[in-house]
Design brief:
Phosphoribosyl-aminoimidazole Synthetase, Chain A, domain 2, seven-stranded mixed β-sheet, about 20% strand, single chain, about 35% helix, 13 strands, four-stranded mixed β-sheet, 60s Ribosomal Protein L30, Chain: A, about 375 residues, alpha+beta
Length: about 375
C-alpha cells in the first residue's frame, strides 16, 4: 500500500516561509521602484508634479467568492482587477500593488500558490508591479486586501463634474457578470477555462458558449484603463465612475456627487448578449441584471462632446463599444428609467454591503408627463 504523503498547509510552512515563497518571483526593480519587499515599506518615486492615486478593496471568502465555484487563479486576477478599475475611472495609470492576506492556517499551500499566480498574471496584463504587502493567520474566512497605487493623467476625473444637459454614456456591455452569478447560484457548471471549478450541473448545449462568456466577465474582468486615460487626455468626460455595484447604484453615486438627476433610456442600455441568452433561459429580464447586477467594471460617464468624438476616442483606446444611454437633468428630477412605451420607473437598487442584495426592479411604472 502506497504511503500517503501529507498535503502541505500554511501551518507547516509558517508565516515567513509563506512570505519567502510568495515573494521569490516578485520584481526587484522597475520604473519608479526604489525599494520593495524586505523593508517596512515600499519606496516608490513618481515623476515630479504627478498626482498619486491610491485605492483599496477587500475580497472575502464566502461573501465575494466561493471556492466551490471559483478557481483560485481567477480569484487572484479579480482581486487586482477590481482595484485597477477604480484607477481607470479616475483617468489614471495603475503602477504598483500591495496585498494584505489573512488566511486560515489549514489552507492548502497549492491554493495560495494558484491565487498568487492569478494575481501575477493580472499584474502583467495591467502593467502593474506587485511590490509588497502583509500576511496574517485568520480564524475566519480568507481575506484579500488589495491596494493599488497609480498616477493621474493630465486631468483628474471624478464623480462630481456632471452638468445638466450633458449626455450619459457607458462603455461595453452590461449584465454578463450578474447573469453568470445567477447561473452559479442555481448550481450550474462554471467552466475551468472561464475561471470556474468545472463542478456543477451542465447547462443546455446551446447555452454553453453564452455561459462561458458570462463567466469570463464575472471571474476575469478587464478594467477600462485605456478608455479612462483617453477620456481624461482628451478632456471629454465631466464625471466618471466604474460600474462595480450596478449601473443603477453607481449612477446614484455619480448624481449625488454632482448634485444632479438623470434619465436613462431602457432601449439604449447595452445588454450583454450572453446575459440576454441566459435571461431567456432562466426567464429573467436581462435588463434587470444590466441595471442592478454589478461587477461589469465598465465606465459610466457624462459628456457634452459630440457622439462621434466620443466613439472615435474610445475606439482608438481599444474599447469595443460605447452607448449613449440618457441625459443629465436637474437634481429635483431624480433618477428615472424611460421604457420604450414612454412610461417611467424610478431607478434604485444595486449592491451594498451589510444590506440584502437589491436587484433593479422593472415595475412601479408611472405615466410619462
Amino acid at each position: 500500500m502506497a504511503r500517503r504523503v501529507p498535503v502541505p498547509t500554511l501551518r507547516t510552512l509558517g508565516e515567513f516561509g509563506l512570505i519567502a515563497r510568495l515573494t521569490a518571483s516578485l520584481p526587484r526593480r522597475g520604473a519608479g521602484f526604489l525599494l520593495g519587499v524586505g523593508d517596512d515599506a515600499a519606496a516608490l518615486r513618481l515623476p515630479s508634479g504627478r498626482t498619486l492615486l491610491a485605492t483599496t478593496d477587500l475580497l472575502v471568502e464566502g461573501e465575494d467568492f466561493r471556492w466551490e465555484q471559483a478557481d483560485p487563479v481567477a480569484v487572484g486576477w479579480k482581486a487586482l482587477a477590481v482595484n485597477v478599475s477604480d484607477i481607470a475611472a479616475m483617468g489614471g495609470r495603475p503602477r504598483f500593488v500591495l496585498l494584505g492576506l489573512a488566511v486560515p492556517s489549514g489552507t492548502p499551500v497549492a491554493r495560495i500558490d494558484a491565487l498568487y499566480r492569478g494575481l501575477r498574471r493580472a499584474a502583467g496584463a495591467f502593467r502593474v508591479l506587485l511590490v509588497g504587502g502583509d500576511v496574517s493567520a485568520s480564524t475566519g474566512p480568507l481575506l484579500l486586501a488589495v491596494t493599488v497605487l497609480g498616477e493621474a493623467g493630465g486631468r483628474l476625473l471624478t464623480r462630481a463634474g456632471a452638468r445638466v444637459g450633458e449626455t450619459l454614456w457607458v462603455t461595453g456591455r452590461l449584465g454578463g457578470s450578474a447573469a453568470a452569478l445567477a447561473a452559479l447560484s442555481r448550481g450550474y457548471r462554471a467552466a475551468r477555462e472561464a475561471g470556474g471549478t468545472g463542478r456543477g450541473r451542465p447547462v443546455p448545449a446551446r447555452l454553453a458558449g453564452s455561459l462561458r462568456r458570462a463567466l469570463t466577465r464575472h471571474f476575469r474582468p478587464c478594467p477600462r484603463v485605456r478608455a479612462g486615460a483617453a477620456l481624461a487626455r482628451r478632456g471629454l468626460a465631466s464625471a466618471v465612475i466604474d460600474v462595480s455595484d450596478g449601473l443603477a447604484g453607481d449612477l446614484l453615486h455619480l448624481c449625488e456627487a454632482s448634485g444632479v438627476g438623470a434619465l436613462v433610456e431602457a432601449a439604449a442600455v447595452p445588454v450583454d448578449p450572453a446575459a440576454a441568452a441566459i435571461g431567456a433561459w432562466l426567464r429573467i429580464d436581462p435588463l434587470a441584471w444590466a441595471l442592478g447586477g454589478g461587477e461589469d467594471f465598465e465606465l459610466l460617464f457624462t459628456t457634452s462632446a459630440p457622439a462621434a468624438a466620443v466613439r472615435k476616442t474610445l475606439a482608438r483606446a481599444g474599447t469595443g463599444g460605447a452607448a449613449a444611454i440618457g441625459r443629465i437633468l436637474p437634481r429635483r428630477a431624480g433618477l428615472t428609467l424611460q421604457h420604450p412605451d414612454g412610461t417611467l420607473s424610478p431607478i434604485s437598487g444595486g449592491f451594498e454591503h451589510f444590506r440584502s442584495a437589491t436587484a433593479f426592479r422593472l415595475d412601479s411604472r408611472r405615466p410619462l408627463r
